[in-house]
Structures are given as C-alpha cells and as structure tokens.
C-alpha cells in the first residue's frame, strides 16, 4: 500500500558529482543520460532517454541568457584588458574580440542552457515522465505524461536554435 505513485515520481536526487558530470557532458537535467543537443546549436525538444520536455514553459530559456551574459563577460573582459594594456590598435582590438566571441559563442550558448536546466531541476525538481511501458497503456498513464501514441520518441523538433538570443547588438 505504501508503494510510490507511478504516474509522476521525482527521480532520486543525484550526487553533486553526477550532476556536474551531466552538465559537462550536456545531458538531461532529469535522467542525466539523454543528450540535450542534436547539433551545434539545435536542441532536442525532449530527452531522447526519459522523454522530459526541455522547454518547461514558454520563455523558459530566457533565464539562460543571464548565464550566457555573465559567461561572455568573464571570457571577454580579460582579453579586452590584456589587449588594452598592450596598446593594440582599435582594429586589432575589435578583430580579436569579435573572433573570440564567434569562437566561444556556441559553447556559451550550449552550456548556459544546460546549466540553467540543471539549476532549475535542483531548485524545483520535475518528475520523470511516465515510463514507456506505462505510457502505452491507454488509460492508466497520467494524461500530462503520456506522449501522443503516433509520435516517434525522437521527432527531432528543434527548440530555439539561438534565434531568440541575438541580443548582442
Ligand atoms: Zn532525460
């Protein structure tokens, strides 16, 4: 009688090391296994392993912009200071910083989103979606957790490929 509810159960809390490893490998904040990105800037809509939808709500990834902004600041300011101390020309100064921005932006974009999802998962844990065998039962699965029966598990729909984060100008 005291078995845990199966429709929406919070996964066991992973160790800090396990979560840090998942962040470094850019994995799902819930199961720590599924890949978050399917291409350089393209995200999976949901976890390929556990089915968690990454974009928890509309505008969910706005918070990752703050992380990206801080990371960009931390990366670019030392370079800018170094260049300024060496009295390089404005052209070289600009070229180096623009090149550095272009090179590190994909990394910052990816890690800011992954880090935000993991921070959010720690602060406000979301349950694992219903397991696949439960989800296939027509009536037993929780209505919010059951995917559409015809939908492939990894339909490749992308969530924002950085189009919404072009706030550098
Ligand atoms: Zn997952």
């Amino acid at each position: 009688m005291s078995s845990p509810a199966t429709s929406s159960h919070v996964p066991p809390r992973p160790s800090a090391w396990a979560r840090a490893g998942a962040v470094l490998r850019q994995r799902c904040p819930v199961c720590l296994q599924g890949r978050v990105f399917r291409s350089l800037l393209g995200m999976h809509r949901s976890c390929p392993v556990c089915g968690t939808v990454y974009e928890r709500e509309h505008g969910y990834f706005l918070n990752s912009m703050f992380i990206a902004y801080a990371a960009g600041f931390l990366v670019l300011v030392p370079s800018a200071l170094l260049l300024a101390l060496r009295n390089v020309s404005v052209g070289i100064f600009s070229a180096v910083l623009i090149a550095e921005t272009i090179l590190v932006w994909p990394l910052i974009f990816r890690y800011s989103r992954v880090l935000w999802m993991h921070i959010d998962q720690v602060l406000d844990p979301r349950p694992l979606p219903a397991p696949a065998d439960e989800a296939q039962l027509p009536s037993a699965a929780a209505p919010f957790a059951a995917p559409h029966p015809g939908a492939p598990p990894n339909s490749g729909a992308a969530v924002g490929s950085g189009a919404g984060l072009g706030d550098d100008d």
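The chain has four helices and two strands. The chain has a mean pLDDT of 80.
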